[in-house]
Amino acid sequence: MHIPDGFLTNRLAVSLDVVSGATILYAARRVKVDLSGRMVPLMGVLAAFVFVAQMLNFPVLGGTSGHLIGGSLLAILLGPMAGFLTMTTVVIAQALFLQDGGLVALGANVFNIAAITCFGGYAVFRLLGGASAKGKKLLIAGFLAAWVSLILSSTFCALEIALSGAIPLTVGLTTMLGYHAAVGIIEGMLTAGVLNFLLKVRPDLMKVNGSAKFGLADWAGALIFVAIPAVILALAGSSSLPDPLETLLASSPLLFSGTAPEELSSAARLTDYLIRAAVFIVLVAFGFLAGFIARRRSAKL
Amino acid sequence: MKRPFHAGEVVRTMTDYVVRITRLSYTYPDGTKALEGIDLDVPVGERIAIVGPSGAGKSTLLLHLNGILTGTGSVKIMGSNLEQSNLQEIRKQVGLLFQDPNDQLFCPTVFEDVAFGPLNLSVPAAEIPRRVEKALNDAGLDQSIRSRSSHHLSLGERRRVSLAAVLAMEPAILGMDEPTSNLDPRNRRHLIEVVSGLKATLIIATHDLELVLDVCSRTVLMDQGKIWADGRARDMLANAELMEKHGLEVPLSLRSGVRSN
Amino acid sequence: MRHNFIDRYSALDSPLHVLEARTKILAFTGLIVAVLCIPVHSGVLFFVYFFATAILMGISQVPLGYIVGRTLFILPFIVLASLAVPWHGLTEIGVLFIRAVLCLMLLILLTNTTRFIELMRGLRKFGFPQILVMNLSFLYRYLFVLTEEAMRMKQARDCRRVARAPFRKELRILSSMLGTLLIRSFERAERMHSAMLSRGYSGDFPVVSPRRFSWHDLAFLCGVAVFITLTFWLRKT
After folding, report:
1. In terms of residue numbers, what domain contains B24?
2. Contact (CB, 8 A) for B189 and B159
3. Any CB–CB contact under 8 A between B106 and chain A?
4. Helix, strand or coil for residue B196?
5. How many other CB atoms are there within 10 angstroms of residue B13's CB atom?
6. Per residue in B152-207, pLDDT tens?
7. Of C120, C140, C192, the CB nearest to B103
8. What is the CATH number of domain A10-259?
9. Residue of B nearest to C205 (CA)
10. Which of A268, B16, B49, C69 is a plausible cystine mate for B212, CB 3.0–4.6 Å?
11. Where are the domains of chain A?
12. Closest to C109 in 3D by CA, of C66, C155, C158
């Protein structure tokens, strides 16, 4: 999910910009040092591949369609650093070409869609022994890596928006996780499907990332990567940067909201909430229906 | 066995050969033998065609000329062996035109694609526009194409831009892989004119036998990784038995006697 | 899927288009940050920035319909935000909406008044890592090639199917398509690398001569800087 500008507090957005920027610089240095010049055209072409793949839709239910995000697939094929840089390229391109995701929010989007999916997916893949597996075990590792990567990614996205107060965590998590748990299955199956295809046709391509070492320096980097956002969040409230979003939504609690403004009785609050939920569900159902009808109509042509 | 045709060849001194290939063999990582015992000497200024059926190893041979592939045996360019240390120098001397222009045009504009080579060779920045201009001229292109993006060009234009990109490095030797493939008659004609006007030593791998007759004096016949014949183009291509044995045909213009000797 | 969605309006010839990429990157980023810093209850400031953005849109000659169409992408977020939380009143939703829309419009203006190539050069000069800029350039270049290949594959697939196949089969077909596209990408990258090596590539990418920074750029930057400073200073008074 690409976050547009205006839904994150400035402090959070800027700190994620810094974190993503640092990760990019680090990955750029690592990829240059590790591999010969052939990585550069490869990353570029694969970035185009992911961009195109994300546009190849695949009808799921009614009007919705799924597609491959590709983060964990890239990390498996190219190694986490190169995979991350490639996904970053895609995210930046989506922001610039399609205005999918904001400019100040770019750091957050890179963090969620490139960093978390690639590093997280790769970690799961390695933990499940995917790197040395063959056949079914490899495919299962790939599937789970992809699925988990989407879960993690959407969790962070919901967390960031919740911490900015725009959408509370309960709602954010349920929608994001619910949606991405389902979409993640498609991602997992497509990832496994593509890996399977590669194994049959060009098994040599699976070895491109060959020497993806995850040394001490990388562990230190990973630790810092997690530590910095935590520190920043801990310091929340102590900065004097102008942060209108916070003042706007100052009344809303940050995590696990559930307390309503005092003047409403609990019955009134519940009714209000139910009405909003109902409207929301109707809108979503409407979206499905509209898409379904549109697809039926275009199939008839 | 390898050199049945040698009509009219003048004896040359060692220094005249720009390319000397001796017993070159190459096997792909998956075990396929691509080249076996290739011997080829190309004197300066010659225009030589490499013909043969698909899979004969023509493209593979070209890739050995500038060190992209390294096989067993020896490849000497301008008298020097190909080594890691002198590859940059060799690539200044040997230009390769690949079959698919899309693989060679990867910069956002034509200007940058053509300038890519010279920039890599550390040609001073002030010199670059002149080189690009000259290369575009030599390739038969209008200067206005400079600011266009290659994905907006037709195949014929892309071919010529790829050629310009190689010519910009001012190589002494030019290797070409199927330069006229997929071109419509007009573009093909234009390309042949351009190629005919080039001053470099030409090594052209092609299926287009009419092109061979138009441009090249000498032809080498390859099949299954080996050289089967090496001599004057007209004589070899008119040899119906040889042609058919190696999956080729006598070109129409020779069959119908259209070409005058 | 026409692939001119990227650069459709960047080749126009408005006063904004002629500015250097760096100028626009700085100016529009500044404006976006300014919008994000507008205090929530100053409706006046929002109006002023909206007016300024409208003027810029007019100057840029980018069609209004196109800009408005793109802002619709925001809607799902707004809907979710407004419905989900009982204490988001109408003013709050409105402010959220206008902030997001303004930032989006400014971003659209930036990307549609600057040719992609120029944008890349500008980013590079600001210190964007070389490798990222190269990746973006290759992505831009090969997007078209790959889109064509994907479209051809899709057409070939469509020619051979009668009705919608069951889910598992569809998945397998898509996996094969993606797999094929992926392999072709690898092979293309390999050939590209050979072509690059043949033209002397040794790992570094030299930069071609930059565009001149003219007084237009200076004027625009100063104008934007003055505007931002004034608006925020005036608010304080």
Report:
1. 14-98+172-255
2. no
3. yes
4. helix
5. 7
6. 898 889 999 999 999 999 999 999 999 999 999 999 999 999 999 999 999 999 99
7. C192
8. 1.10.1760.20
9. B120
10. B49
11. 10-259
12. C66
